[in-house]
Amino acid sequence: MCVIPPANQGQIYRSVIDQFITRNQEKLSLKRSFDLPVYNLVSPRDRVLPIFEVSAVGFNNEHTRALVYVGHICGGLCGRGTYHLMVKINGKWEPDNEFRRAPFCLWRRNRTEGIPAVPSRKTGAYFR
After folding, report:
1. Long-range contacts of range 8-14, CB-CB < 8 Å, 24 or more positions apart?
2. Of 4, 23, 67, 91, which has the fewest beta carbons less than 10 angstroms from its beta carbon?
3. Could you tell me if 114 and 128 are in contact, meaning their C-beta atoms sit under 8 angstroms apart?
4. For residue 104, which of 53, 57, 67 has the smallest C-alpha distance?
5. Contact (Cβ atoms closer than 8 angstroms) between residue 77 and residue 90
């Protein structure tokens, strides 16, 4: 895993990362437990339907910090994904800017030529 906290922040983030790893080794299934208003994730005119992926969420013991992976693949050489560390402030989840190595583990592929390649923070390899 490429989410590695600096030594001086290990105590803050270790439980979040450990629970994230454990929860994502389990087999999970989504269940409809609430109703949403009518919405479209993609337009019927779209030629390529994207695939979205979201990990299980790892929390610290106090449920004030969380780690989740979100990504999408939109066909061929199109897609991106990254891990998100979140912190709960005044009852609202926000990006955790205290993590000294954020952003991290970003990957991106572009299906359009002419867009510069972006290095992966995880491997250093370049993706288009």
Report:
1. 9/98, 9/99, 9/100, 12/60, 12/65, 12/98, 13/60, 13/65, 13/85, 13/99
2. 91
3. no
4. 67
5. no
Q: Which range of residues forms the domain containing residue 82?
A: 7-24+53-127
Q: What is the pTM of this model?
A: 0.68
pLDDT in tens, 2-22: 777 777 888 888 999 999 999
Domain membership of residue 59 (yes or no) is yes
| Backbone torsion region of residue 57, taken as left when φ is above 0, otherwise alpha when ψ lies between -120 and 50, otherwise beta | beta
* DSSP classification of residue 22: H
* Domain total of the chain: 1
Distance CA 126, CA 64 (A): 34
Tracing tokens 């994730």 back to the chain, one arrives at 41
Report phi then psi at 71, rounded to 5. Answer: -150, 170
Token pair, residue 123, equals 């491997």
- Cross-strand partners of 79: 73, 109
